[in-house]
Structure formats: structure tokens, C-alpha cells
Write a structure and sequence with these properties.
The chain is about 35% helix and about 30% strand. The protein is α/β, with parallel strands linked by helices. The strands form 3 sheets. A 9-stranded mixed beta sheet has the order 8-9-10-7-11-12-13-17-14, covered by helices on one side. It has a 6-stranded parallel beta sheet with strand order 3-2-1-4-5-6, with helices on both faces. A two-stranded antiparallel ribbon has the order 15-16. α4 runs parallel beside α5 and α8 packs across α11.
Length: about 375
Amino acid sequence: MSEGEIRVGVIGCGGFGLYALQQFAQVPGVRLAGMAGTHREASLAAARRFGIPDVEEVDRLLARDDVDLVYIATPPFLHHTQAMAALAAGKHVICEKPLAMTLDEADAMIAAARRADRMLVANLMQRYNPVYDAVERLITSGAIGEVLHGTFENYASDENLPPEHWFWDRSKSGGIFVEHGVHFFDLFAGWLGPGTVASAQRGIRPGSDPPIEEHVQCAARYAPDILVNFYHGFHQTGRMDRQELRLVFERGDVTLYDWVPTRVRLHAMVDEAQTRTLCELFPGSRLDVSAVYSPRDRACRGRHKAIDAYQVIEMSWGDGVNKSHRYGELLRAILGDQLAWVRDRSHRRKVTEANGRDSLAMAVAADRMATI
């Protein structure tokens, strides 16, 4: 690295790879140095846009001395081979999710990165979201009691995933849990700690040949006894693509919208002190009081606990935030965090190689149960 500059080479550059590069190029101290492993017209146009003169073969890119970090934006079945080659060439690696297709592959990649003292991370950027931090603080504060249950429902579009796309080929994608579910296994683990998969199922698109796995679901258990349901379906038009995440507490619930959450709705029964805490956790939110109880009506019980029911409120936070802009912020944040470690090994990263491995372990367990 010359004078602290991080020179990035990318392997593969599809639609998302291009979007990520647009964000990575804005991180201070980063320069895009090379592109390899793709010859799509859109990728060639991207190379010209970023001033990359030639799209190279992967081996040639990895042999270059002026590439410090490799961003792997290829389909999942290529991640292990390409990451191992990049680490062997002395490069740092940021890899699109999932980290790998199997736990053995992930473990081999992590071991190689640690032997070489190189950064390895999957692009699990959800933990850099201000919404993630706010929900984490809500849980820790106890303002509306303990978490009891969670759901994530992903009704995703398949409009840009034609039947021949690699996404539907389990030998290339690993299936929906592995290719996509890792984001949300990591998100819930950040809030609730390690989880275990209790059951899982999948559904095949009727009449598809070869069979298309179009939706999956699983139930997971988190300590001490929190139950969470995950559903991922790829069967909607782009106009109807939508996601909803909800955590249910003893005295209320919080709902997040979109797969990169920006909007939050909170429904809770609280007293004045708890209301103030919630306003501090979600600054600038809109607060509506739905019900106020008189002193004689305030006493009630839930979970065999006495509750002082002062008022029921509704809070809205994040309206007007552009999801695409927020997504860009998260990509810039994860790269900035990783580069801080590259420059100073004492820096504590928010997401490490362990996140990629742990989320993959949940995904593999769910996939195994669903396909028995």
C-alpha cells in the first residue's frame, strides 16, 4: 500500500457488483485498480467508467503488486476458490454473501486468512444500519420488556431472475437459505445472540423443470427461549417486492420495513419515563398517543407480572429515508470498518469473518432440514 492508499481489484461485476463499486470508490483512501473474471457489456462499461483500462483474467489480477484488496462479486460457488487464491497471493478479501457454500470451505478460508494475517469478510452490511443500532438499544434498555418472538417475511421479486439464472441452480447458489438468508440470520444473532434451527421447509414452483425452489421457511430458537420465524419467497413482481421484520416484546412490538430497513413502527404500552426512553432511542420520531388510562384502570397483568398501564403509544421513525441511499451508506461503512483494521490491527471490527461463518452455519442447518 502506497501512503495508506488501498488499491482494490474486483472479480466479477454484475448488477450488484457495479452498485457496490460505486460505493466503495467513495471511501476515502480507496482506489479501484483492476477488474477480472467478467466480460459482460455492463461490466466493460463499468471498467471504462472507473478508468480501468482492461478486464483481466483472475490469475493476472491476483499477481499484480498494485492490488491490496480483492472484492469478490461472483456467484457463491466461486467464492471459496477465488478467495483462497486471493489470500494465497497476499490480498485482503471482501466477499459477497454467503462467505462460502459449505462450512468446510468457510473454515478453510478463515484459516488461510489468519495464517496470512489478511482481512476476510462477507458483505453482511446490515449491522451498520442505524436501525440495527436503535433496535439493539431498545432490547438492552428493557423499555418495553423482554423479547419474546420475532418474524422476518421476505416477499421478494423474481422479475429479474429468469429460469436460466444461476440463482435457481442450487449447485451454484446453495439455495435460498444460503444465498440470501445469511443476511437475516446474522441480523437476529446480533440482537439475540447465537441461535439454533428447530425446523425448516421449502416449496418447489409447480410445473418447474428442473425444479425451482421458490420459497423457504424455518423456525429458530434463541436464548433464553425466544422463538423466531424466517420466510423467504422469490415469487413477486418487482412492483410488489416487500419485506417486514417484527420483534414482539412483553409490552409492545417493533416493526421494520424493507430488506434494508429504513422505516420503523413501534406500538407499546408505557409510562412517561419509558416514553421518554423510546423518544431518545428513536430521535425525531412521530409520537401518537392512542389511549390514556385513568388511575383506577391502570393496573393489569401479563406473563403473571403486574403492569402499570399508563398509556398506549404509536411511534414512527425513518419516514422519508431513501432506501437506496441508506444501502450505499452501509456499503461504505462496512468497507471503511474493514480498512481501519487493515491499517491498524487493534481496531475492533463490527463484522468479522466469524459473522460469515456463523450465519452460514444457520443457513446450512436450515437448508439441510428443508431438503430432507
